[in-house]
Amino acid sequence: EADAGEYMCDTGDRQTTAALLVKALPVLFKHWLKNEEVEEGRTVMLHCELTKPNAPVEWRKGDTVLQPSDKYEIRQEGTRVELFIYDAEAQDA
């Protein structure tokens, strides 16, 4: 983290130093994903909220990592993370 490092207090004649280690807090979920139901051809949005803003996230369907495309839109603002699935089809379930 940006504040980690070596610090020194210097009186001119004497000095003392200390190392500061900043442990990153884990990213937790404040609001979990919820099950959704959507009619075929519609757009659905899945969203959750994290405890840490702008934390890196990865959206997956099964083992497949989802990438932004005409089918999927991924948004992240602060602690809120959203996945839009456009033109829902049976295989999107």
From TrEMBL:
Species of provenance: Pygoscelis papua
Main location: cytoplasm
Compartments reported by the entry: Cytoplasm
Recorded GO CC terms: cytoplasm
Gene3D superfamilies per the UniProt record, alphabetical: Immunoglobulins
Gene name tied to this protein: Obscn_3
Boundaries of every Ig-like domain copy: 26-93
Swiss-Prot/TrEMBL keywords: Cytoplasm, Disulfide bond, Phosphoprotein
Name this protein carries in UniProt: OBSCN protein
InterPro entries named among the record's database cross-references: Ig-like_dom, Ig-like_dom_sf, Ig-like_fold, Ig_I-set, Obscurin/Obscurin-like_Reg
Pfam families, A to Z: I-set
